[in-house]
Design brief:
Blueprint: H1 4-38, H2 46-62, H3 67-70, H4 72-90, H5 96-124, H6 130-138, H7 140-159, H8 163-182, H9 200-204, H10 211-238, H11 246-273, H12 276-296, H13 301-329, H14 332-350, H15 353-362, H16 367-372, H17 375-385, H18 388-400, H19 410-414
Helix pairs in contact: 1-5, 1-7, 1-8, 1-10, 2-5, 2-14, 2-15, 4-5, 4-8, 5-6, 5-14, 6-11, 6-13, 7-11, 10-11, 10-13, 10-14, 10-15, 10-17, 10-18, 11-12, 11-13, 12-13, 12-17
Amino acid sequence: MMDSRKLIALIFLGGVFIMEGFDIAAMGIAVPRLEGALGLAPASFGWVFTAILVGLGIGGATIAPLGDRFGRRALIVTGCLATGLATLGTSTAETTTAFLIWRLLTGIALGACLPNVSALSSELAPARLRATVMAVVSAGIPLGLFLAGVLAPGVIAAAGWQGLFYTPGLFAVALAGVLWFVLEGGAPAENAQGTAHAKLPQLLLFSRPWAFPFAVFVSMLGLNALNLYLLNSWLPTVLPLGGLSLDDAARVAGVANLAGLVIGIGASALVDNWRKGPALMLLFGAITSSFAVIGLTAPDQARWTWLLMVGVGGANAAAMVLPGLAAHLFPARLLSSAVGMGVLVGRLGAFAGPPLGAAMIAADVPARTFLGVAAIPALACVLVALLVGHALTVKARVEAAGEQGVPVSPAAIGG
């Protein structure tokens, strides 16, 4: 049974993902309004959307690992505070260059924070519920996306497009203060085998026997992240091309993202209690079908809303489910490294999403074609999911051979 302090910590760690989801949606909702407010064309924001992903990579690779040295609480609180300040800074931007710089800084701060949030969530969860707890905590992303879509019209009416950044920025600053008191201790946990090899578990992911399951894991993360950032960056801009108003487009995007929370929790339970590969094939197959149907049909708000609930909601659900899959692919003592490095490497796939969307917007691609393109990465995920069953056998073979811990010697890494 989980004690109350751990449960409270997990709830507020979920708040970090809510803040990230709102922040992701805020830029996409703001872009179609900035042409009138600042004279900035939507097609010029491709690299602005990519900047946050570059920042995530930089922060994840250079700052997040300091959590092993200074403790996860220090990195989570500092990263959350820095994210809030950079998001508030975005509200002052008046040029695409200024937006790019602020989004880059936001990404660096998030990159420092999020891998430590994922790792700490897995460490706080009971072993038998690790995958499900991780999925529920990360459900904050679609919840944040939903809140942004639903609240956007009122926030903009009250504070202009800048309000879209005031909201997550102030929330992140307040959350940093709460997390400082809620999370226990500032010192890093002592490695059972000492601190001399603290960084070696990350390297094990790129060597046998873990390289294959890690490749399967990050391939699906990367392909799904491409769709996630393509859709959440451009959906509020694309839907008006199909006849929706700006406010209706924001609301439809919000509802579609909320569906991801329900789908994600259901899919996580399916992955935990059924065959992992077929469960993921079913999820990504549904996403593929929804975007294929959109690509082949004329715009219709009611029909597209239901299809986007499956497609966009499914992509958000997959972002919840896949970190939980790591609990089945890797042993407990390698799990934190697998989740942190997996999210970091998987984010690289997201780099292509915003520029791809910008190119299609600039080429005046019809809305249904734009959305139909999202079926391609989803179909690729279906194919990768065919390998999940084989990837799962690696952990089983290691455990059957009696290797209860993760080898950390240089010889083992080379093997």
